[in-house]
């Protein structure tokens, strides 16, 4: 690997994560005693930006925090990673986004997000950052900001001939058909791929069918992340059957932000000019480290920790 750094611009959410650890996830109406609590920087956009920065890219963040202590903390933590926050707005009225996260002893999580200031990342605020978008090798979006905003970012990326990545998370419904041709890499997890494609996913073979259904809608590449089962990638110009790439085997303690780490690492590696399969493998090695650590941004490794 050379030393050249690519540029990644992330359009997305920033949340303060309030994380409780409990023996298991509570049932409806149940109160459970937890055994640990932590407040850490998170949000899918912020996590992916931090991952891309720690894993080797120059990163800019387009987003919005509230005018409150959570917002100040999140902005400071991005700046500490060397991330360009010139396009990070501060809302005068909405509080910073929060995520309530429960992690159980089997390392599974359940998350409720309250968008707050993330809902104020508007299409106009993205379009005003044409310079940051044009300078990016790779533009990364998720679905924790308004849908019109995500579409505007993808459309700008296509117009400016930048590589676009959409992590369709959280995916509560199907995407509008006119989005698909704007996406170079669609990277859902198995739940999101099932929601978007209508194909139930239990195995890599199911993921292959879901990816094929999504690629048929006009996306250039589909990469379905399958947790411990690895990823199923259906890549432009390659075998239509796709490739299943297993994950490194590790003992997981907290899977929060594992997908974000994969995406940030993949984006950073793609931006510096690596081949797509190499970028996938790099993202997988980074995510395998993240799951062995607690929390969202605190769990994300640095490039020096990733084995060649
Ligand atoms: O992907 C993990 C993230 O989802 C958490 O950091 C939380 O903020 C939610 O956005």
From TrEMBL:
Pfam families, sorted: PfkB
Source taxon at top rank: Bacteria
Keyword Nucleotide-binding: yes
Activity regulation statement: Activated by a monovalent cation that binds near, but not in, the active site. The most likely occupant of the site in vivo is potassium. Ion binding induces a conformational change that may alter substrate affinity.
Active-site residues, as the UniProt record annotates them: 260
Family to which the UniProt record says this protein belongs: Belongs to the carbohydrate kinase PfkB family. Ribokinase subfamily. Belongs to the carbohydrate kinase pfkB family.
Protein name as it appears in the record: Ribokinase
GO MF, any single term: metal ion binding
EC number(s) on file: 2.7.1.15
BP GO annotations: D-ribose catabolic process
Organism: Caballeronia insecticola
